[in-house]
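A brief tutorial aside. Many learners find it easier to grasp structure tokens once they have seen a single protein encoded end to end. The record that follows does exactly this for Septin. Read the sequence first, then the structure, and try to relate runs of similar tokens to stretches of the chain.
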Amino acid sequence: MVVELDTRDNEIENGAPIAVEERILHPALNLDARQLELKGYVGFSNLPQQLIEKIKKRGCTFNIMCVGETGIGKSTLMESLFNQSFELDPCSHELNRVELRERNFEVEERDILLKLALVETAGFGDQMDKENSVRVIVDYLNNKYEMYLQEELRVKRNLRLYHDTRIHACLYFISPTGHGLKALDVYAMKQLGKKVNVIPVIAKADTISKEELKRFKCKILEEIRSNDIEIYHFPEDDSNGAEENAIFNSVVPFAVVGSTDFVKKSDQLVRARQYPWGIVEVENEDHCDFLKLRAALIRVNIAHLVDRTHTLLYEKYRCVRLKELGVKDGDIGPGMMQAYKMVSSPKLLAQVQSTESEVRERFVQKIKAKELELKEKEREIQEKMETQNREFQLEMQRLDEKCRQVDKEIMEFEHAKQQFLLTKTKKK
């Protein structure tokens, strides 16, 4: 950057110069800019406070995705991070495919409203087709980017009021096997790292010893480097939080323990896991990296995660998508309108297909209901016929019995008659 001092006479007010002008030649934009050294207070230094008031009024959005096997502790860790009971539904091992379950919450702290979205990957790792499991998640991430792109390309848009559903952070839960990453972990993290800020965490870290944990972390980092997996790097180039972020980067992957239970220790209730041999405190840095994860994810870098999602990850998707639509640099008017039509067409087609599917589903349901009704009537008729048949058989049996009784009486009568006639003949 080249700085040139302005040689013009400085303006004088009350015997003192108001400002000294400098011309700054910006190396990237190749523009001349004048730097002014102000004498007195103007007011734009109040901009940070204005931004704070703006955030207080509108709130901020933060969307987290948790990827990991069923039962690894995703829900418990989320509740521990935000010190809230989210009442998330438990996942089943019997799902046929990965299900993305999204829950939205509003959390307030010191007059700052956080619009929080938690997305859980139910059934991840339970299917034979591992690639399809990951594809479902990638498609979900792409769909969120596509929704934002469609809003951007609208003629009449309102991004200020648009509810951003793009995922800002992805916590990838690694099973504490002690033997490194599984094949599914390598494939999933490699695919997800291109779409979202991936932060690897070792779940249930209290199940392995400290020495095993150190070796396990080294093994994971080695496999991440050897497989060119892109994970989120906490920024160290900013003076604000650089030292803390350096510490956070040194402990990745975070070894965490989650718990919704509180145990009494020294007359205080602490969040911990109770074992026969003692307790593991969630918020004790000697026991796990939970506090570092919460500080890194929420207290220090939440703004950077949101910004990186928009300026880097979304921009990559946007660039590729617009090229697919045939948009070039400098295209305006008809070019962008054509792109919007092409982007909107799949959405309209999807709506038509969805409506058609709903109508078809309702028709099928009506057919099934009618079939059930007919089957029920058929069953009633069949039961009635069987009842009547049983009654007929019983009546036939009664008639047969009466016939046999009559035949017997006739035979007895004939026999008595013969005896009578024989006796009468002998008397003559």
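Self-check: Residues 1-26 have pLDDT under 50 and may be disordered. If you spotted this yourself, you are ready for the next section.
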